[in-house]
Amino acid sequence: MTNKPILIIGKYGKTGRRVLQRLESMGVQTRAVSRSTELSFDWQQRETWGPALQGVGAVYVTYQPDLALAQAEDDIEAFTLMAKQAGVEHLVLLSGRGEAGARRAEEIVINSGIAWNIVRASWFFQNFSESFMIDGILQGELVLPAGDIPEPFIDAEDIADVAVACLTDAKHRNRIYEVTGPRAMTFADCMRELSQALQRPVKYTQVPIDDYLDLLDQQGVPEPMQWLLKELFSEVLDGRNSQVQKGVEAALARPATDFQVYVKRMIESGCWSTDRLKQAV
Ligand SMILES: NC(=O)c1ccc[n+]([C@@H]2O[C@H](COP(=O)([O-])OP(=O)(O)OC[C@H]3O[C@@H](n4cnc5c(N)ncnc54)[C@H](OP(=O)(O)O)[C@@H]3O)[C@@H](O)[C@H]2O)c1
């Protein structure tokens, strides 16, 4: 491991902030960036990349909003080249499972000539608590165009543990860790377990994809986000990713965190408390 700082892209993101927290508590020098940090980094403004890369030894790469975007391939290619020219020695890419765009980004990083890791993750538990699903949960009904295809959702805390192991221990170099949770669950399963733990009903309702897109439109969700959600629900969540993988065990020699453990932690944090709904009214 190098003594130069580790660049974290997505400072406030679901995994970026957890990676940052862990590295800071280990006393590792970091530089965490996003569009709103003082040293700004924006995937859509390439002139911001060079200053962020200046003098760093390794990078934790998260691409926003998603590697499924057509633009991602070009961006990852250009970023990797710039990182190499800046003398970066190690790239850890957060990737997704079963997405063609994610796979292309992985190939670019693997063939970059820089030491690499790929952390290829399933859907995060945190989509239920830090992302687009939280409102539905607070209102007692999660409406999505997903049927009974199970997904082995994963805890972003586990992803951060794996990413930090890769960033700080050379024994992991040049390995792909395909990380999932320990159980494949449908969205209905998740809401059933969440309702039981919350002791209040949160219903799961499946709707056709076009109805869901109409709903997003009515809610004023921007077009690129609508496209992304359509892509994720119609293309990726088709069963190709249902299998549990053992990447967390392989990297950390411990099992991945179960959904029930995450739910308990979130209830204790108050994240799904109905007080939040009252505050929003
Ligand atoms: N969510 C899932 O279930 C899932 C599953 C597998 C893989 N993934 C992959 O995870 C990646 C996203 O990582 P994440 O979930 O850790 O991050 P995230 O939570 O989506 O990231 C949010 C962070 O990114 C920053 N950000 C937003 N737009 C940006 C831009 N244009 N340029 C630079 N920073 C930007 C935000 O801060 P500012 O607003 O200050 O910029 C914030 O710090 C995607 O590539 C996706 O493919 C996600």
Give the gist of this structure.
This protein has 281 residues and is of the alpha/beta class.
Annotation keywords:
Rossmann fold; alpha/beta; 281 residues; two-stranded parallel ribbon; binds NADP nicotinamide-adenine-dinucleotide phosphate
The CATH class assignment of the domain at 6-124 and 154-181 and 243-257 is Alpha Beta
Annotation field: number of helices: 12
Write the H/E string, N to C: EHEHEHEHEHEHEHEHHHHH
Report the bound ligands by name, code or SMILES: NADP nicotinamide-adenine-dinucleotide phosphate
- Please estimate the helix content: 40-55%
Query: Unreliable segments (pLDDT under 50, ≥5 consecutive)?
Result: none
Query: Which structural class do the helices and strands define?
Result: alpha/beta
CATH homologous superfamily of the domain at 6-124 and 154-181 and 243-257 - what is it? NAD(P)-binding Rossmann-like Domain
Distance between the termini: 50 Å
CATH topology of the domain at 6-124 and 154-181 and 243-257: Rossmann fold
Profile the largest sheet.
6 strands, parallel
Just name the CATH architecture of the domain at 6-124 and 154-181 and 243-257.
3-Layer(aba) Sandwich
Shape: globular
**Rg from Cα:** 19 Å
**Average pLDDT reading:** 95
Q: Percent of residues in beta strands?
A: 5-15%
Question: What topology does this entry show?
Answer:
Layout: E1 6-9, H1 16-25, E2 30-33, H2 49-53, E3 58-61, H3 71-85, E4 90-96, H4 100-110, E5 115-121, H5 134-139, E6 141-144, H6 156-168, E7 175-179, H7 187-198, E8 203-206, H8 209-218, H9 223-236, H10 247-252, H11 259-269, H12 274-280
Parallel strand pairs: 1-2, 1-3, 3-4, 4-5, 5-7, 6-8
